[in-house]
Structure prediction request, 336 residues.
Amino acid sequence: MLTVPAFIDLHVHLREPGQTHKGDIAHETRAAVAGGFRTVVAMPNTTPPVDTPKRFKMVQELLEKNAACRVIQCACMTKERAGKEPTDAQALKEAGVIALSDDGSTTQDAGVMREVAYRAAEAGLPLIDHCEDGPSTRRGEIAMVERDLEICRETGARFHLQHLSAREAVELLGAALSSGLPVSGEATPHHLALTQEAVARWGTSAKMAPPLREEADRQALLSAVASGIISVIATDHAPHSAEEKAKPFDEAPNGIIGLEAAFSVCNRVLVHSGLMTLDALIERLTTGPAKVLGIPLPPETIVIEPEGDWLLPQPAFSKASNCPWNGYPGWGRVLA
Prediction:
């Protein structure tokens, strides 16, 4: 057993307010604690979206009542997450916001994103961007990464590129870091462990955005995490109701849950495989996310068992069960 810093997840969906048939603050933060996460960053794609100081305050009150761990609530980059008009970054910062994101609906308008970036740079807030077009195509991801890097270069805004999935996007990130741009990137446990072949077994429980891609993409992500080009592992924990995920594949929503399984999955594919050390994996789950947010590493610690086969059970604490991890052969686990 080892005592290590508690994990930080830069990308979770708590679904409250407005979507509590999928998940809620109490259930999803208990899942976070079970997975070793004591700090999570909640995406603002709630109903209504968190795009004003008033809405931010409303969600903060819900979090104070119901959260089992520290929750950093992200606010929207654009009003109503509609991609048409930037939010007031300075007013949001003064209300306590420390990062901006539109999550899965990043604006497709480069002019709007440029103005968002200028405002974020002036307010000193990082942009956490989901680099995709609407259909989540490979080309769309590459194009959005190229766009964000160009705007980063022009404005000086800090960009964090959420859950990269395509090897070409990883290469662009590496080149940007080499040139000194203030950028960072993340990968998810599911993109590190699975490929598109998982869909044949798990159906909609392996449907997410960006989608699982090819083995070459997975290997590129693993190498980038091991080398530090990708400095953050984030779960994109996204609960949905059983009824929603039971729809035909094309109609079912994107997203899987992953907080409770994250360490065991990543420990197997990155550490047990010999690609990187356990200390480096802990960094991707702690200091990497903290640096993106510009916060000190929180003081909490957790206890892990870093060795041993661990056949992952069905997640126990989330309100949802939509994931491909039930029965996955993890390595090691979080004990307390």
In short: DSSP finds 13 helices and eleven strands in the chain.
